[in-house]
C-alpha cells in the first residue's frame, strides 16, 4: 500500500498528515517520502548545475568535481553528527523487550534494498529511534554475543565474572543457612564486604574492560544498522483519538 505525497493536501496540512501517518503506524511511508523527496531534489540540483556549467565559456571539469564533492560531503557529515547527538533509546520501553523477537533474516537483516543513506537529519533520527524500538531484542542479543566474545578473548575477565557470581551465591547460601536476617548489623557488614570483594575482583581481572568493549561495539553496530536500515512495514496500530 502506498500513498501519494499528500492526497489530502487541499484540506490537510503536511504536518497534520505526517502526524496521522505516525499515529497510524505508517512510519515507513514517511521514510520513503523523505528518500523520494531528497532524490528529486538531488536530480534537480544536478541538472541545474550541469546546464549552467555547459553554458559557461570557462568550463572547468576539476572545479565542478570538487564542488560536487564538497556539496555531497557536508550534508553527509551533518546527518552523521545528528545521529551521534540523538538519543537512540528515547522511545524504548520495557514492553519492547517482552515483544516477540523479529526475524533475523527477513526483518532485521533484510536484503540489499533494505538499506540506504538517510536523506537528512530528520530521516536519520526517525530511523534510529524507531529501529531501536523495533529491534530491541535483536540488539540485546548482539550485546550478549559481543560480551561473550570479549570474555572469550579475555579469560581472566571470565574468571573474574564467575568469581563475582560465586561470592554472591555463597552469601545467599550463608544467609539462608545461618539466618543473618536476625542480625541486621552483621548482615549489613557482610553485604558491604561482599561488595568490596566484588569491586576488587572486577578491577583486578579487567571485567569492566570486557564490558566496555562489548558496550562500545554493540552501540556502534546498533547506531549504524538503525541509521541505514529502512523502516519496514509493521502491524498497524489503531490511530490515536484526537
Automatic annotation (TrEMBL):
It is found in: Endomembrane system; Membrane. The keyword Transport applies. The chain crosses the membrane at residues 139-168. The keyword NADP does not apply. InterPro entries: Prenylated_rab_accept_PRA1. May be involved in both secretory and endocytic intracellular trafficking in the endosomal/prevacuolar compartments. This is PRA1 family protein. It comes from Linum trigynum.
Amino acid at each position: 500500500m502506498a500513498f501519494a505525497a499528500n492526497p489530502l493536501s487541499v484540506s490537510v496540512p503536511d504536518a497534520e498528515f505526517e502526524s496521522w501517518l505516525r499515529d497510524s503506524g505508517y512510519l515507513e511511508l514517511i521514510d520513503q517520502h523523505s528518500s523520494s523527496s531528497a532524490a528529486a531534489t538531488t536530480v534537480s540540483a544536478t541538472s541545474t548545475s550541469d546546464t549552467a556549467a555547459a553554458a559557461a565559456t570557462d568550463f572547468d571539469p576539476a572545479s565542478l568535481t570538487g564542488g560536487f564533492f564538497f556539496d555531497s560531503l557536508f550534508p553527509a557529515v551533518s546527518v552523521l553528527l545528528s545521529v551521534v547527538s540523538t538519543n537512540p533509546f528515547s522511545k524504548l520501553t520495557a514492553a519492547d523487550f517482552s515483544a516477540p523477537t523479529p526475524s533475523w533474516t527477513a526483518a532485521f537483516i533484510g536484503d540489499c534494498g533494505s538499506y540506504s543513506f538517510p536523506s537528512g537529519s530528520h530521516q536519520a533520527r526517525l530511523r534510529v529511534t524507531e529501529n531501536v524500538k523495533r529491534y530491541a531484542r535483536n540488539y540485546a542479543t548482539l550485546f550478549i554475543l559481543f560480551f561473550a566474545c570479549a570474555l572469550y578473548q579475555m579469560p581472566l575477565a571470565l574468571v573474574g565474572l564467575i568469581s563475582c557470581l560465586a561470592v554472591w551465591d555463597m552469601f545467599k547460601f550463608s544467609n539462608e543457612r545461618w539466618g543473618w536476617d536476625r542480625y541486621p548489623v552483621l548482615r549489613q557488614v557482610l553485604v558491604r564486604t561482599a561488595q568490596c570483594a566484588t569491586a576488587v575482583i572486577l578491577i583486578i581481572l579487567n571485567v569492566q574492560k570486557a564490558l566496555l568493549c562489548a558496550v562500545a561495539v554493540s552501540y556502534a553496530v546498533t547506531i549504524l544498522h538503525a541509521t541505514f536500515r529502512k523502516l519496514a512495514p509493521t502491524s498497524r496500530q489503531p490511530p490515536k483519538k484526537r
